[in-house]
Amino acid sequence: MSLNLTTANGLEPATNGLEPAINGKEAANLHDLSEPFVDNLAGQLFLNEAFKIIVEEIDPFSFMMRLFSFLSGHPRFFNQLFAGVDYHALAGRFLTEALNTNLYTYEVAPVFVLMELEVLRGLRQLVGWTEGDGLFCPGGSISNMYAMNLARYQLFPEVKSQGLWGLPRLTIFTSIESHYSVKKGAAFLGIGTDNIILVKVDDGGRMIPEDLDEKIKLAKSQGAVPLLVSCTAGTTVQGAFDPLDHIADVCEKHKLWMHVDAAWGGSVLFSKQHRHLMKGVERANSVAWNPHKMLTAGLQCSALLLQDTTNLLKKCHSANATYLFQQDKFYDVNLDLGDKSIQCSRKVDCVKLWLMWKAVGSSGLAKRVDRAFVHARYLVEQMKKREGFHLLHEVIPVCVCFHGQPEFVNVCFWFIPPSIRGKEGNKDYQDRLAKVAPVIKERMIKEGTMMVGYQPLGNKVNFFRMVVFSPLLSQKDMDFFLDEIERLGKDL
Ligand SMILES: *Cc1c(COP(=O)(O)O)cnc(C)c1O
């Protein structure tokens, strides 16, 4: 059986698939934002057929479902870091549900075990590792927790049997703009949220390696044992990429586990043009990557990737249950992946990615990533032409190095309603500005026209975070977005 992801008929081989070939016509296609990227019509027909079958089966609920659920597959759903539908992945999701099996043993999921291994191998290859380990986890948050647990086990293997009893105070370093799951992980694993040391970021939201170095030294001088640095590749709000190469130097110097939370940004690894954002990732010990975000593989699809070849994952988590993982089975019992996991039952999350990857190839996924950047740039250009849109990164001098563009596909901005335009000097300006985004959001939800997220950040009051990566998105939707924000906010 051949499950090689990278040599599907007619697709570019992707071993160096870090370098997908894009010819002139395709490149032009990439920049034509007037149409969605995937065949929306064919996909919609497929969806209608499938939905009809589902609705016929569960008719009493269908009315409620349509009324009370929202459609994350709609091109104007910009609320989260997942959006859009990939119809190949969707077919994989139907298949997974229909077959309803469990990834813990090879005997109940033979082909899926092999698929998971292949998909993980393919993802590791993009990171730059020819060997290693990994696991699909129920989300990036859990992947981040795994990394912490592995780092601790590597340093203090006795923790598995003895617990926290004999351990010194351990500390974890992460930037102040990292994802909140780092905090949750520290609480869950008994490390303690007070032992998360927040490292400063530059104006673009990237961790400052010099501050990291200082803080590690300080922690050591206070008798703590520095354990792990959790870097972020694509921060949740600003989309910033921590400078991995420099952080790797610091981790090497102090012998710390380097984890990269690339839940959001990991997909840039497909793109020849943009993978430089994660330069140095190959020096990490572990990487968390959510293909359910930018690649639209569907919730959920989240991989933990490890450089380790010493079977750390299994040593750290195994319980050797004899009723499930019998050692005298007739096949290679190393194919029973389940004991690497902290779970017993584990959902099959690899098929949807495998199928989509097979269908469009590494070069197809690369084009989607490239296209998302083109979308983000288009949006920024349009905002600059309109009065009332004020980009977050424009107030940040350092961003000149990105030619006035945001680093990733997160476009953060304030909408300044006419009533406060030009009144930045007023005492109540920030208070009034802070109230704008929540009201516009309430209005858009009640009218059902679109959905986009907002948040405050540090000393910056509520601003919108627009993310543009759905393959269903076209220029028309982005123009609509801008018009709609203006319409909903003009009287504020
Ligand atoms: C989304 C995200 C996570 C959390 O992933 P889940 O799959 O939602 O648990 C972690 N880190 C970053 C940077 C994220 O953007």
UniProtKB/TrEMBL annotation:
Task: Show the GO MF annotations.
Answer: pyridoxal phosphate binding; sulfinoalanine decarboxylase activity
- UniProt keywords, alphabetically: Decarboxylase, Lyase, Pyridoxal phosphate
Pfam families for this protein: Pyridoxal_deC
One annotated Gene Ontology cellular component of this protein: cytoplasm
| UniProt modified residues of type N6-(pyridoxal phosphate)lysine | K293
Where does the source fall among the domains of life? Eukaryota
What InterPro entries does the entry give? PyrdxlP-dep_de-COase, PyrdxlP-dep_Trfase, PyrdxlP-dep_Trfase_major
Mention one GO biological process in which this protein takes part, according to its record. carboxylic acid metabolic process
Cofactor(s) listed? pyridoxal 5'-phosphate
Q: Subunit structure of this entry? A: Homodimer.
Could you say which protein family the record assigns here? Belongs to the group II decarboxylase family.
Task: Output this protein's name.
Answer: Cysteine sulfinic acid decarboxylase
Q: Which organism is it from?
A: Sander lucioperca (Pike-perch)
Which gene is this protein's source? csad
